[in-house]
Write a structure and sequence with these properties.
This protein has about 475 residues and is an alpha+beta fold. The chain contains 23 helices and 9 strands.
Length: about 475
């Protein structure tokens, strides 16, 4: 899978809740750089990440039930575009640039016809689906939103892995057992992972956005700073309609263009959608067979290894060198065991030769995880480690597994943007941080926090917590 596809998923996933969920520690620089290219808030990799767009995937109080659940779309007061400059400072995101691009919108869409023709979209279809299309400028506010608060990884897991959602998941697995059997056999992808994606992305088709995907992607293809990326999404959405896989009424979703039970972007649909029930349409909105098979097929294409799990909760010994807790530092389970890592709950690792990396999203005071190659396949759905951890853990729970054994450092508070800046400034003043304070907690900040922690004799886990900030302030 290409990196752009990863970005696709990055866009897709996080719902308001996720949007609100940021990890505290370990944001990566890559994520920080990606930030400006994503939507409203974000939680990426291991750190507070730059904004991920909000989609219907994560339940939160403000989320509207989708039509599937309510029987009919609920109407909310329509909010207009703020008319303000975007927070990114990108020249295409100024209010003047947005107005100008909006005025040019009909011409921009019309000019996409040659590209549509190359995709074998008929002139008839092109005209039918683009007739009367208007831009949804409210999306411009979402693209550049900069949330002040984020959630800790444990809050994120609490929100996503609930008894109610698990119960619903087990019910769906039982009701559609024959389908899951057939799909597992056909694609070699763990049914519990597929069921976890369905549960977390749309709460089993009961939550999702109600924006026209065609309109959203057309808006983003013609206005703002992500036009090249969304041109492909818009044209792919047109292909879906032209082929008749989905009707315009079904093609509704998040402002960033993700739709259906497992929130595919149009390009991800094009790559992975399957007509598993054989009715001639790849219906990832209303056909359970197509939903389950398409999602499994995406995992297969993203490198899912049949018969293997995603990772294990582990106990990390006191005094452990947390510089090894890094996605680039892959070792065999046997090597990790020699360093004192143990599987939580007094269990043995099934295969000592598996390669894994260590993740410690709550620092030394929280659980560790050894992540296998399938964890990376989950991250292709959404490049946020908290997301992938939630999916993996949710799948284990659906399978009958127990809650995590170790506690999270719940007394730690997630830093606000202002506090993240202060943290970087204090680290900089004390000679630990050389970058420009920007509020994005990347690897540079993590290394600086580690150096500071080492200097005061604390476990050097690099976890940019409220506790670390407090200690910096006192010195
Ligand atoms: Ca079908």
């Amino acid at each position: 899978m290409t990196s752009s596809a990863k970005v696709t998923n990055g866009w897709r996933v996080p719902a308001a809740a996720l949007a609100a969920v940021g990890f505290i520690a370990f944001a990566s620089d890559v994520a920080a750089q990606a930030a400006p290219t994503r939507g409203p808030l974000v939680l990426t990799r291991q750190g507070i990440a730059p904004p991920l767009p909000i989609t219907g995937s994560i339940p939160q109080p403000a989320a509207k039930p989708a039509a599937i659940q309510s029987g009919q779309p609920q109407t909310a007061p329509v909010k207009e575009w703020s008319g303000e400059d975007g927070a990114s400072g990108h020249p295409l995101m100024t209010a003047a640039a947005i107005r100008q691009a909006a005025a040019n919108f009909p011409y921009c869409v019309a000019n996409l016809w040659p590209d549509a023709a190359k995709r074998n979209i008929s002139r008839d279809s092109f005209e039918r689906y683009t007739a009367g299309l208007t831009p949804d400028l409210r999306i411009m506010d979402f693209v550049d939103a900069q949330p002040e608060f984020t959630k800790a990884v444990w809050d994120y897991l609490d929100i996503l892995v609930t008894d109610a959602r698990l119960a619903r998941g087990r019910e769906m697995l039982a009701t559609h057992r024959a389908t899951f059997d057939a799909v597992e056999k056909a694609y070699g992808v763990d049914r519990y992972i597929v069921a976890a994606i369905w549960g977390i992305e749309s709460n089993y088709s009961t939550q999702g956005g109600d924006r026209s995907v065609l309109r959203s992607t057309a808006t983003l293809a013609c206005i703002g700073r992500r036009q090249a990326y969304f041109k492909d999404e818009f044209l792919s959405a047109l292909e879906i309609l032209h082929r008749g896989d989905l009707s315009p009424g079904q093609l509704k979703g998040s402002w960033a263009g993700a739709f259906g039970a497992t929130q595919f972007m149009p390009t991800a649909f094009k790559r992975s959608a399957i007509d598993f029930d054989g009715d001639g349409r790849r219906d990832v909105v209303d056909s359970v067979a197509d939903i389950v098979a398409s999602t499994a097929n995406k995992f297969k294409k993203d490198g899912w290894r049949a018969g293997e799990t995603w990772g294990y909760e582990v106990e990390v010994p006191r005094g452990f060198n947390y510089a090894l807790a890094d996605r680039s530092k892959s070792m065999t389970i046997a090597q990790w065991e020699r360093l004192g890592i143990r599987r939580a709950g007094d269990k043995a690792f099934p295969r000592a030769g598996d390669k894994a990396f260590l993740l410690a999203p709550g620092g030394a005071e929280g659980p560790g995880f050894l992540m296998l190659p399938n964890f990376r396949a989950i991250m292709r759905y959404n490049p946020a480690e908290a997301y992938a951890l939630a999916i993996g853990h949710f799948a284990d729970r659906l399978r009958g597994g127990a809650p995590l054994v170790q506690n999270w450092p719940r007394e730690e508070r997630v830093l606000t943007r202002a506090e993240r800046l202060e943290l970087q400034q204090l680290l900089s003043q004390r000679g630990f941080y050389r970058g420009e304070p920007d509020g994005n907690l990347g690897t540079g900040t993590r290394d600086a926090v580690r150096s500071f922690q080492a200097s005061i004799g604390a476990p050097a886990d690099g976890f940019a917590s409220s506790g670390v900030l407090d200690r910096l302030r006192r010195r």
